[in-house]
Design a protein that fits this description.
Layout (H helix, E strand, L loop, with lengths): L5 E9 L5 E10 L4 E5 L6 H8 L7 E6 L2 E2 L5 H7 E4 L12 H11 L4 H14 L15 H13 L5 E5 L7 H13 L3 E5 L3 H7 L2 E6 L2 E7 H5 L2 H6 L17
Parallel strand pairs: 3-8, 3-9, 6-7, 7-8
Antiparallel strand pairs: 1-2, 1-4, 4-5, 9-10
The structure holds adenosine-5'-triphosphate.
Length: about 250
């Protein structure tokens, strides 16, 4: 897997109740790109992300990571490459302590205890929660849980980082800290968010979903400068691109 390209071809997903959440999505993401996936509630963002490391299987179409198709037999390999931070941190945290949660992945890789300790300490420090390492995750605040959930993925040193709404519930300081962390992560990033200012700051490319289809895919600044497209997709310009409400400039 030299280039870690993520390729999605004609991806369709129909949930068991008949909801067609994805209706023929195709794109390619190259190594080192930072790509946002945006869209209104229900547009299909989380459903799309859950296919990137095989938590959901396509109804039609396929997903490849590098040379590897994402199928049941390749999941261990794919999940070492693609680190996924879920929308709800409670889906990610299930061990008795923060340390155990962050150590879970590295231990499963069979790494020696000293290396596990090093990775856990490093991941917790990077998200600013080293002081919480002995706490039970269910006793954490929402924002703390989110940061620990991110640490569980960082401790695996993934080549591709996939984050579903990573800034939700973070206070402004923690949001800024997370943005700095993500900016420093030089590998591929795929992020869904309603925080379009974060998207402007971190992602050079944006894919817009509408009704389970790709409505646009291009440079973030061009996408957010297209008012017709934004209105059709129930999106608004990021605050940083809106004029001053008082003077209009
Ligand atoms: N488990 C499920 N069973 C049936 N339908 C589902 C399920 N999960 C999601 N859906 C539906 O699939 C569609 C896409 O949902 P998805 O969660 O991917 O949207 P989203 O763009 O991530 O939305 P949001 O911005 O609200 O998080 C929606 O119509 C939703 O109601």
């Amino acid at each position: 897997m030299s280039h870690h390209i993520v390729e999605v071809r004609d991806l369709c997903h129909c949930y068991p109740d008949g909801t067609e959440a994805l209706r023929g999505i195709s794109f390619r993401i190259h190594h080192g790109e930072s790509v946002a996936v945006v869209g209104a509630n229900g547009a299909g963002k989380s459903t799309l992300l859950l296919h990137l490391n095989g938590y959901l299987a396509p109804t039609r179409g396929d997903v490849r990571v590098g040379d590897t198709p994402v199928v049941r037999t390749t999941l261990p390999e794919v999940r070492r490459t693609v680190g996924m931070v879920f929308q709800d941190p409670d889906d990610q945290l299930f061990m008795p302590t923060v340390f155990d949660d962050v150590a879970f992945g590295p231990l499963n890789l069979g790494l020696p205890p000293a290396e596990v300790e090093r990775r856990v300490t490093d991941a917790l420090e990077r998200v600013g929660v080293a002081h919480l390492r002995d706490k039970p995750p269910y006793r954490l605040s929402g924002g703390e849980k989110r940061r620990v959930a991110i640490a569980t993925v960082l401790s695996m040193s993934p080549d591709i980082l996939v984050l579903d709404e990573p800034t939700t519930g973070l206070d402004p300081y923690a949001r800024r800290q997370l943005m700095g962390l993500l900016r420093d992560f030089s590998h591929t990033k795929i992020i869904t968010s309603h925080d379009l200012d974060m998207v402007m700051d971190l992602c050079e490319r944006t894919i817009v979903l509408r009704g389970g289809k790709v409505a646009a895919d291009g440079p973030t600044r061009e996408i957010f400068g297209n008012d017709e497209l934004l209105a059709a997709c129930r999106l608004e310009r990021p605050l940083s691109m809106q004029g001053c409400p008082v003077c209009g400039r």
